[in-house]
Amino acid sequence: MLDQSKVPPAYVPPGLDASVPMTWVAVVDMLRATGLPSPPDGGSLRTRIRTVPIRSRRLQAEMAEVFAIAVCRDVLAQLQQAAAELVA
Fold this sequence. Notes:
Order of helices and strands: EHEH
Radius of gyration: 15 Å
Largest sheet: 2 strands, antiparallel
Strand order of the largest sheet: 1-2
């Protein structure tokens, strides 16, 4: 996300309290979360997600994969919708 002035999308992982205010922004490194190697030039693919506070380091590490999966599902849904609109 190049324009960091925009409000990032919101997501509350399963098992966490959705009634808690979303005061944190998780930065998800998609390459690391999916186990892919970083490019030789040191680049990365990161996205920001508003979420509830996740104070435990252990839970933060566990949520990295959950966030990556949620982002992938969202991107796939958007691509499918765009493809359906092109066909229509």
